[in-house]
């Protein structure tokens, strides 16, 4: 006769780190995690911890301090310290304009016109962007042992956008598929080194971005140029992988799942219920709070309500869809963790674990 | 004899070499430049419709735009010489903080094909520069592009500056972060739509409103 259970774990009994990692694999969670997979830092947070842009992009201590506001101020279960998109391209020698406190860095020129020009320097990991990010991850790992630390990598397609130029690269997609493949093969090693370095520094997961969005190209473009490469990547990066692709992606989510990504970070152009069906059981979904009209212009209550809708739709984690505008107020962002807490309390059927909703139950569209 | 149907098809499929060849032939045969331009405009209309229905995507649209641009470059001196004047004037730029130009370039192309004179003031454009450029060109429309929602506050500033400056230009804002609601909230006169084809439709509607109000 099994012994009677006299003490049970109930309520919010998981650490944020454990909760997030379990959610990535669609495992049992005590609460739906509130996540930062893209930048949620704002000018307000920079002032709060005295860690402004642009210095925070290249200083590990400032980067770590600013990134930690996601957990300390906003109550998120994750911390993601990479605020910009130039981690790999800058380390490869791409020119970057680091901008000001209230603005974002961006590539300032495109130096690549042929795959043969792409060279990963021997001191790639000693480049300032790499040193800052791996250093920040190490600091965060030490200071926040129970919070999930998420790294970020721009994959070869997205690095090509930055170093070749979006327009020039997409013209090659139309005219010279072989050249596109050679570009991807040339950039891939730099992306994999970045991912592995961030895992070694202590990251729990990597968000990998390759922007083959439906706003730019057809689903077959992802299938023909990236699917097989991504199947290799998901087996090689050394830890959990979350794929990010902006914009309209409903027609290719099943391909992302086939690539072996553990989770997909998706945007508000995609209906969460339709995404749940497309992803099936094998890929977690994290998202997809709208930035411009909800987080930037909405209220705490607006965000809170949409979060409930998303959890009803079956998302495995709540997150803003992309980097939030730098002047977004903290109150709407704080609603995310609050909604996750309250919804999960209501849906914690046995007191221990959240019961996943039926994805077909409701017709409310999120975002 | 220059085959303008062949020119039209070349632009539709992005065959730059054929587009340039037929255009040069048309010039050599003294076919009115506006007639040649109209053939390419019709071609971009077809391309636009295919793009709007997801028959083609941005890569295919870019090579069509590239073909037309190369052909129009041959025509431009003749168009100016013939006294051709576009109906409306637009200023186009990507807002400060955003270096993406792909949407802007596609919209500029569609606006030109649709009869607008377009001055492209580039990327990472500060709000006050939109006002200056609109004054310089006596623009009817200031079209502001952005890809990143993080730049919305700059667009809002630009719309405010344009409104307060007293110039007659109306603001048209477009890009993935924008919608009718967002455009209204940030003070733009009109949302430019979700792609280059709807941007041209929106610009024409805005011009219609301007003329009605005048």
Radius of gyration of chain B: 17 Å
Shape call of chain A:
globular
Task: Enumerate the strands of the largest sheet of chain B in spatial order, edge to edge or round the barrel.
Answer: 2-1-3-4-5
Overall pLDDT of chain A, averaged? 94
Principal-axis shape of chain B equals globular
Task: Estimate nothing, just give the exact number of structural domains of chain B.
Answer: 2
Going across the major beta sheet of chain A, what is the strand order? 1-4-5-6-7-8-9
What is the CATH domain class of chain A? Answer: Alpha Beta
What's the N-to-C terminus distance of chain B? 45 Å
Based on the structure given, which CATH architecture of chain A is correct? Alpha-Beta Barrel
Helix content of chain A: 40-55%
What CATH architecture label of the largest domain in chain B applies? 3-Layer(aba) Sandwich
How many distinct beta strands of chain B?
5
Q: Identify the CATH class of the largest domain in chain B.
A: Alpha Beta
CATH-assigned fold name of chain A: TIM Barrel
What do you see in this structure?
The complex is a heterodimer of chains A (367) and B (214). Chain A has 367 residues and is α/β, with parallel strands linked by helices. Chain A has a single domain (16-347), classed as TIM Barrel, CATH 3.20.20.210. Helices cover 44% and strands 10% of the residues of chain A. In chain A, helix 3 packs across helix 6 (128-143) and helix 7 (156-164) packs across helix 9 (177-201). Chain A is globular. Chain B has nine helices and five strands. Chain B has a five-stranded parallel β-sheet with strand order 2-1-3-4-5, with helices on both faces.
């Amino acid at each position: 006769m099994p012994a009677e259970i006299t003490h049970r774990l109930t309520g919010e009994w998981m650490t944020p780190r454990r909760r997030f990692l379990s959610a990535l694999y669609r495992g049992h969670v005590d609460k739906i995690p509130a996540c930062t997979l893209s930048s949620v830092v704002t000018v307000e947070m920079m002032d709060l911890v005295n860690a402004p842009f642009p210095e925070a992009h290249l200083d590990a201590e400032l980067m770590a301090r600013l990134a930690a506001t996601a957990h300390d101020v906003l109550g998120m279960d994750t911390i993601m310290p990479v605020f910009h998109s130039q981690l790999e391209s800058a380390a490869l020698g791409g020119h970057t304009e680091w901008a000001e406190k209230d603005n974002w860095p961006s590539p300032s020129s495109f130096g690549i016109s042929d795959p043969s020009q792409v060279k990963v320097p021997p001191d790639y990991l000693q480049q300032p962007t790499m040193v800052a990010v791996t250093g920040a991850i190490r600091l965060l790992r030490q200071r926040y042992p129970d919070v999930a630390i998420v790294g970020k990598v721009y994959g070869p397609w997205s690095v090509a956008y930055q170093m070749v130029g979006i327009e020039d690269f997409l013209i090659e997609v139309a005219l010279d598929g072989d050249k596109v493949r050679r570009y991807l093969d040339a950039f891939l090693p730099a992306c994999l080194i970045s991912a592995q370095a961030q895992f070694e520094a202590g990251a729990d997961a990597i968000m990998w971005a390759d922007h083959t969005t439906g706003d730019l190209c057809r689903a077959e473009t992802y299938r023909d140029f990236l699917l097989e490469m991504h199947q290799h990547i998901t087996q090689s990066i050394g830890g959990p992988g979350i794929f990010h692709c902006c914009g309209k992606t409903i027609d290719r989510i099943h391909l992302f799942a086939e690539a072996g990504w553990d989770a997909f970070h998706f945007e508000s152009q995609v209906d969460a219920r339709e995404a749940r069906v497309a992803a099936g059981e094998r890929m977690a979904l994290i998202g997809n709070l709208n930035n411009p009209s909800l987080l930037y212009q909405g209220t705490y209550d607006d965000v809170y309500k949409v979060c409930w809708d998303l959890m009803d739709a079956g998302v495995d984690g709540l997150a803003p869809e992309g980097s939030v505008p730098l002047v977004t107020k903290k109150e709407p962002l704080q609603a995310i963790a609050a909604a996750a807490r309250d919804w999960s309390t209501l849906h914690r059927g046995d007191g221990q674990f959240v019961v996943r909703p039926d994805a077909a139950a409701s017709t409310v569209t999120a975002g | 004899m220059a085959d303008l149907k062949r020119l039209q098809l070349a632009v539709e499929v992005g065959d730059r070499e054929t587009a340039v060849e037929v255009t040069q032939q048309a010039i050599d045969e003294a076919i009115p430049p506006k007639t040649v331009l109209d053939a390419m405009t019709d071609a971009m209309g077809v391309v636009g419709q295919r793009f709007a229905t997801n028959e083609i995507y941005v890569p295919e649209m870019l090579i069509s735009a590239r073909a037309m641009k190369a052909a129009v470059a041959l025509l431009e001196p003749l168009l100016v010489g013939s006294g051709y004047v576009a109906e409306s004037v637009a200023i186009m730029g990507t807002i400060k903080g955003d270096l993406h130009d792909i949407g802007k370039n596609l919209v500029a192309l569609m606006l030109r094909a649709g009869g607008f004179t377009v001055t492209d003031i580039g990327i990472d454009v500060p709000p006050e520069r939109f006002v200056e450029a609109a004054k310089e060109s006596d623009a009817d429309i200031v079209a502001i592009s952005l890809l990143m929602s993080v730049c919305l506050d700059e667009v809002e500033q630009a719309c405010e500056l344009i409104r307060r400056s007293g110039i007659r230009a109306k603001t048209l804002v477009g890009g993935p972060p924008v919608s009718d609601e967002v455009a209204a909230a940030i003070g733009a006169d009109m949302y430019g739509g979700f792609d280059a084809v709807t941007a041209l439709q929106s610009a024409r509607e805005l011009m219609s409103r301007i003329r009605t109000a005048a």
